[in-house]
Structure formats: structure tokens, C-alpha cells
Design a protein that fits this description.
mainly alpha, three-stranded antiparallel beta sheet
Length: 118
Amino acid sequence: MVIRTTPETGEFYPAGAEIAGFPAPHGVVTDALVTVQALAMAKNWMDLSPGTRRLLVISGTFEAVLKIAALIDLARRPADQVRGSKPRWAVAISLVNSFGAVPIAYFVRGRQSSSPGP
């Protein structure tokens, strides 16, 4: 894939955009490979500040711990004490990248009280 830029503004747009119905920028355009520009614009792990790296590690660890705790609880809890389908909760907890929202939703809304009846 090729990206084009306008020398006047430096704006990027995909080559062929004018064919797909989008207006091409005015002026002379130069071609460059996407990979070269993407690599030049992308941030690597080491380009991030130490605070940002720390925040990413802490938030990733937090979500992983929540997911593991929710899956352990789900596996140990009888099906009649779970609101909804246990397999669906397991898939949602495992696969949805949620910043902790799905495991928290399971703990708050997915479990029924385990107190014994009269």
C-alpha cells in the first residue's frame, strides 16, 4: 500500500483515494511506502515514558488478576448461582478486552447470593 503526501501541508492520504471518490489534496504529491512512514510515526515500547510504561504494566496486571479471579469464581460457583450462562460468562470474561469492566460486571451482576434459604 502506498501513502501520498502533499508537500505544502504534509498531510497523508492513501494512494487511490481520489479514485474511490475522495478528493485528492491539491498540489504535487510524492509517493512513499506505508511501512516506512508507519515506522517513522509509530512508538515503540522504549519510546514511551517510564510513567506510561508503568501505567500500562499496572493496568494490564490489574485486568489479568480480575479475569483470573472471575474465572476461578465462575468455575467454583454452581450454575444455579450464576445469572445467565456459565459458558457465555467464561467467554466474555476471557476474550473481551474490557479494562476490567466484564470481570467487575460478573462480580456485581453475574452472581446470585449464595446465602442458604430457610
